[in-house]
Specification:
alpha/beta; Rossmann fold; 6 helices; 12 strands; 30% helix
């Protein structure tokens, strides 16, 4: 698995990452969602550089222009609900992409232990396509692996890009060991070293789903 950490270079992405972390700024849920969307757009642009392009002639009012356009079949998938603003940002740049949605959540038991439950997935076939899997927080990494396995039941993609603005070092290590797909690139905006006993990323940013859409039962 190839890992690309965009925070290693100075760019406006670092500004948006700082804002979604800031406990004062993140109180504005609309701004939090918009920042995640903008982060998704930046990742989409960077991913676009690695895709396949073919020459296409475009008729203008005055002549014909030769352009290179992406020829990949792309499927964008988010792990609901925290991944939705990020998903939308990626979709803004890949407007012809197909879309998938995975409903996953943590089901807690005793001693703060939990299992990831996937109740529902809506997806086109991803076989031999480019899969972009968006998850705002990569904590343990188990939800990403389970989501991929669910999406790939009908066939594996040719390439996979995983987009996680905030990732834990432990989660990255888990993906490296457990993702079955070898042609995978993990894109992150920051890597945090600490994961608590409840598998919360520190410093992290809190509960991205609650910050984007309000608290849940």
């Amino acid at each position: 698995m190839k890992i690309i950490n965009l925070s290693e270079e100075n760019s406006v992405l670092n500004h948006f990452i700082a804002e979604i972390r800031d406990h004062v700024i993140q109180k504005e849920s609309m701004r939090f969602r918009r920042n995640l969307e903008r982060i998704g757009e930046i990742f989409a642009y960077e991913i676009s550089k690695s895709l396949t392009y073919e020459p296409v002639d475009v008729q203008t009012p005055l002549g014909i222009a030769s352009c290179k356009l992406n020829s990949d079949q792309i499927v964008i998938s988010s792990i609901m609900r925290a991944g939705l603003p990020l998903h939308n940002g990626i979709l803004n740049y890949f407007d012809k992409a197909q879309n998938a949605f995975v409903a996953a959540y943590r089901k807690y038991g005793k001693d703060n232990k939990f299992n990831i439950q996937i109740e529902y997935a809506s997806s086109p076939s991803i076989e031999n396509k480019v899969l972009i899997l968006a998850d705002t927080m990569l904590a343990t990494g188990s939800s990403v692996v389970l989501a991929y396995n669910k999406l790939a039941e009908g066939g594996a993609p040719a390439l996979m890009h995983i987009v996680c603005p905030i990732a834990s070092a432990e989660g990255i290590d888990y993906l490296s060991k457990h993702l079955p797909h070898k042609n995978t690139t993990l894109w992150v905006g920051a890597v945090d070293e600490e994961l608590t006993i409840k598998s919360y990323i520190v410093p992290g940013l809190g509960d991205a789903g609650d910050l984007a859409y309000g608290s849940k039962l």
